[in-house]
Design a protein that fits this description.
By secondary structure, the chain is an alpha/beta fold. It has helices at 4-20, 24-32, 45-58, 64-75, 85-90, 95-108, 114-118, 139-154, 157-166, 180-188, 201-214, 231-238, 261-266, 280-292, 307-317; strands spanning 120-123, 126-129, 171-174, 194-198, 220-224, 241-246, 293-302, 323-330, 336-343. The chain has 15 helices and nine strands. Helix 3 runs antiparallel to helix 4 and helix 4 runs antiparallel to helix 6 (95-108). The chain starts with a helix and ends with a strand.
Length: 344
């Protein structure tokens, strides 16, 4: 959303939010800001970033510099603050630009994640629409997509290469959220078809919207289904697939209270809470895999670092699922984050 119309809508929404929550936030912000709603003092993009970083630091907002940079660059139509160039950074802001920056920063001061504030986010080479309370894609999930592409390129290389020419692997994503994973895969496999499911109507709607914006909606079927309670319906409508991928809810229930305030206040808890052992949805996915995955098809999961061993042990108790644990991969922080399984 780089156009001024979209920014004005975001600005209007911010002011409605502040009005709804009373005048305390406005008063606090006005005293901290060198320009408030009535101010017309000069400011540049660079000085705006400096100012709002300081305000965010004072108010305990996480990632204060990045938050300020994302908001200011978004208002000026840039992807990042560095993409704007020296001239744009030192040019005086218009009154309208200052107003919009103020409004968006006011939302950030309410601990709203910056992705929700600017209503979009880059994931790999895609720009996605992001709306609360739909789960915000993380950098680790970009690693998951890279792992999938690498595995499909190297394992059974001839098979996947031929798919790229005439047809493509059929994907199923469980818990699609904004559509980040499945849309990235469809963007890479130009002939593939996919099914994306989520229990959240907001997530299904957002995935559909992003698919339409990216022009892949004709290759994607979005379904509002719960992989646990609607498993039979999902098997019926999904059919056989080559690959199942998921970044499921995997936070242990007892760990939920320790998440950052930004997350707890705005993001969908159902997209995070994996139950007592974080495995509720993971187990449902593996049961589903035994029914819809083609022979030699694969499952790719993003999980808690404690889960790989738990999944391996659990599979030993359910040999009838005909799933073998293939590998565990680490994320950039060295944590065991990704699991690969295969149907025998």
């Amino acid at each position: 959303m780089n156009g001024m119309l979209g920014l004005r809508l975001a600005s209007r929404a911010a002011m409605q939010s502040l009005a709804h929550n009373g005048t305390e936030g406005v008063a606090c912000l006005s005293t901290a800001s060198p320009w408030n709603l009535c101010s017309s003092g000069p400011a540049t993009a660079a000085s705006s970033v400096t100012h709002w970083r300081e305000v965010f630091e004072q108010k305990g907002i996480s990632e204060p510099l990045l938050s300020a940079e994302h908001i200011v660059s978004h208002v000026l139509g840039g992807k990042t603050i560095h993409s704007l160039g020296a001239e744009a950074l030192t040019r005086l802001l218009t009154g309208s630009q200052k107003q919009i920056i103020w409004d968006l920063c006011a939302r950030r001061l309410e601990h709203m994640p910056v992705q929700y504030v600017i209503e979009e986010w880059d994931f790999r080479d895609l720009t996605l629409k992001i709306k609360p309370p739909v789960f915000i894609p993380r950098p680790e999930t970009e690693e998951l997509v890279s792992l999938i592409l690498s595995e499909l390129a190297s394992d059974e290389k001839d098979r996947w290469h031929s798919f790229n020419q005439t047809s493509g692997p059929v994907f199923l994503e469980v818990g699609c959220g904004s559509g980040a994973i499945i849309l990235s895969l469809l963007n890479s496999f130009k002939q593939s078809l996919a099914v994306a499911v989520d229990k959240s109507p907001e997530a299904v709607k957002l995935t559909r919207e992003n698919a339409e914006r990216l022009g892949v909606h004709h290759r994607l079927q979005e379904l509002q289904l719960n992989v646990i309670s609607d498993a039979c319906e999902l098997v019926r409508v999904c059919g056989a697939v080559d690959v199942i991928v998921s970044n499921p809810p995997y936070v242990f229930h007892e760990d939920m209270s320790g998440l950052m305030p930004d997350i707890l206040r705005y993001e969908d808890h159902d997209a995070l809470n994996g139950g007592v052992d974080g495995m509720d949805v993971i187990r449902a996915i593996l049961h589903l895999a035994s029914k819809v995955l083609k022979d030699n098809g694969k499952v790719f999961l993003e999980v808690d670092p404690r889960h790989p061993v738990m999944i391996e042990n659990w599979l030993q108790e359910y040999p009838k699922l005909q799933l073998s644990y293939q590998a565990t991969h680490h994320d950039l922080y060295g944590k065991q984050r990704f699991c690969i399984l295969q149907r025998k």
